[in-house]
Amino acid sequence: MRTLSTVLLAAALLAGCASAPTPGTLVPADRFGQVVVPGKTTRAELVAAFGQTRTVVFDSGMEAWLYSTATPAGAAEQVVLLDRAGIVRKVRTRPPYPGDQPRR
């Protein structure tokens, strides 16, 4: 019984290590460009338009939100930087890497 528990625990740990990181929430590229305006768009507007996504909160109070937009070449990453007041300050786009598969 103890050996079985050990094997199951090891398998669960290895499965967690083998999984790929989860991309940000997939949103339509044209809608993303319409909604996200640096200096204007708020945290609440992002949630209302696209829902929650992967978020990193820094000690400074700034937040980075990750979205994905589908392109014919693959998924582009959209990184949105919000200030402490919850206003979008910057948006950076990482185009698809060669070999990325388009997301549908």
Describe the main β-sheet briefly.
Answer: 5 strands, mixed
Number of domains: 1
Give the termini separation: 45 Å
Unreliable spans are 13-21
* Net shape: globular
Query: What value does the average pLDDT take?
Result: 80
Helix fraction by DSSP (H/I, runs of at least 4): 25-40%
Quaternary organization: single chain
Could you tell me the radius of gyration in angstroms? 18 Å
> Which class of secondary structure composition applies to the elements?
alpha+beta
Series of H and E elements: HEHHEEEE
- The proportion of strand residues reads 25-35%
Query: Can you count the helices?
Result: 3
Count of distinct strands: 5
SSE topology:
Layout: H1 2-18, E1 25-27, H2 29-35, H3 43-50, E2 54-57, E3 63-71, E4 74-82, E5 88-94
Parallel strand pairs: 1-3
Antiparallel strand pairs: 2-3, 3-4, 4-5
Question: Tags for this entry?
Answer:
single chain; 104 residues; alpha+beta; 5-stranded mixed sheet; 31% helix
Describe this structure in words.
The chain has 104 residues and is α+β, with helices and mostly antiparallel strands. It starts with a helix and ends in a 10-residue tail after the last strand. The model is unreliable at 13-21 (pLDDT under 50). A hairpin with a 5-residue loop joins strand 2 (54-57) and strand 3. Strands 1, 2, 3, 4 and 5 form a 5-stranded mixed sheet that branches. 31% of the residues lie in helices and 31% in strands. The chain has helices at residues 2-18, 29-35, 43-50; strands at 25-27, 54-57, 63-71, 74-82, 88-94.
